[in-house]
Amino acid sequence: xxxxxxxxxxxxxxxxxxxxxxxxxxxxxxxxxxxxxxxxxxxxxxxxxxxxxxxxxxxxxxxxxxxxxxxxxxxxxxxxxxxxxxxxxxxxxxxxxxxxxxxxxxxxxxxxxxxxxxxxxxxxxxxxxxxxxxxxxxxxxxxxxxxxxxxxxxxxxxxxxxxxxxxxxxxxxxxxxxxxxxxxxxxxxxxxxxxxxxxxxxxxxxxxxxxxxxxxxxxxxxxxxxxxxxxxxxxxxxxxxxxxxxxxxxxxxxxxxxxxxxxxxxxxxxxxxxxxxxxxxxxxxxxxxxxxxxxxxxxxxxxxxxxxxx
Length: 310
Hints:
Blueprint: H1 8-11, H2 27-62, H3 69-74, H4 78-111, H5 114-125, H6 132-143, H7 148-155, H8 167-190, H9 196-203, H10 208-236, H11 240-245, H12 253-262, H13 267-309
Helix pairs in contact: 2-13, 4-5, 4-8, 4-10, 8-10, 9-10, 10-13, 12-13
Domain ABC transmembrane type-1: 84-288
Membrane topology: Multi-pass membrane protein
Family: Belongs to the binding-protein-dependent transport system permease family. CysTW subfamily.
């Protein structure tokens, strides 16, 4: 008579004597461990960002008296309206000019040899290794009356053009300072695009320009949107460059906030301006997120349509 065998479900359940069976780690314990690792960063964020931000918002509604008077003055006071409009216009000009300058540069970085690409990346990173004050003082020397910029402009018949102390000079310097923040996001996206997609489009009868416009440009749109949103947000709150190269008559929001807090002690009005910048920043980030997603989807749709047509 054959010996009885253990049931299949219990055959593999035997464990060595004296050793408890292993139990899977609960998911709640893993989440608690992850939260514990994030706790220092969350505490620092709350202490150094959330609490000061809440204090600014409270002061904007309570100083000098409770109510929304500080916010109403943003849209009723003529001087504040001009400052807000000037700041938004300068930020928009800097962003558009940065896109026009950074896109060809980032595109050439994807085509260059490794050695040339390393040199181009170094050129982009050099401003990060230079002091902000040093760069702005260099622009002051270049833009001063009788300086290099005026000498170059006079060679092409533009005599007496003054840039130092003007909004145009501030915008030119801001473009140079913020250009790396535009190039790097573009390049990070462009280097991931398969250039064989352009060849595939051309093999289907599209011209090089049409293939670039319908395939490569939509796929690179997330990099454009990321760089543009980053530069636009930074330009909204830029202080050093407008303070050194601009003038009180052409002040931007950051300069007005500094004057209200240091000289006028108008913490409520300064807080309202700060909250306005924060709201515009959140709106621009939300719009850029939607544009980046729609651009990537459009590029993928063009690629799929081309593949289906073949």
